[in-house]
Write a structure and sequence with these properties.
The protein is mostly helical and 181 residues long. The chain contains eight helices and no strands.
């Protein structure tokens, strides 16, 4: 997953996506609920942390501090999720579950590479199915005229597909070829 090629266009592309996601947080703050704003902000901070961590900059917090910050952000995401369940915001619940599954698939690929290599086709099918579900969420929110949610979903799909997965490489991956990190 984390393909790093300094000569590639990704750094500017990543910066643009992160900037659009930051603007998205401001849109939520101005027009939506505190819960939605907190949700958007927490996911953005988590993305930024993962990106900074992959750059291996010497000014970053220690690995222990990073884990503590990440765990705090995950607790907030869990609280937001429970808030969505309690308020019966089912599109938000479904969207969150799809993202949780996608993150679990990514974690599997990073932490259990031999297992994923053994079941590469299944892992790829599961990942594409979840991406399909996330794309379906865009249409569901558009159908509900929830334009900010639809816009947010498109941004996150683009960000995850380009920044975390390098979706072009993923889609063209030879089943015997492991992903580059």
């Amino acid at each position: 997953m984390h393909t790093r090629n300094p000569g590639h266009y990704y750094p500017k592309y990543k910066l643009a996506l992160v900037g659009l996601l930051a603007v998205d947080v401001f849109f939520y703050a101005a027009t939506d609920t505190l819960t939605s704003t907190l949700d958007a902000l927490t996911w953005l901070l988590l993305l930024i942390m993962f990106e900074l961590e992959t750059l291996h900059l010497p000014v970053l917090p220690s690995a222990k501090q990073i884990r503590m910050i990440r765990n705090l952000l995950i607790v907030i995401i869990g609280g937001v999720f429970l808030s969505y369940v309690e308020s019966k915001e089912w599109l938000d619940v479904i969207n969150a579950v799809l993202w949780f599954i996608l993150i679990a698939l990514l974690e599997l690929e990073i932490r259990r590479q031999p297992l994923v290599a053994q079941y590469r086709a299944l892992h790829k099918t599961a990942t594409l199915t979840v991406f399909g579900g996330l794309i379906g969420m865009v249409f569901a929110w558009a159908w509900q005229s929830a334009w900010l949610d639809a816009y947010d979903a498109v941004l996150w799909i683009a960000a995850f597909g380009a920044i975390e997965v390098d979706i072009i490489q993923f889609l063209s991956l030879n089943p015997e070829q492991p992903p580059t990190h």
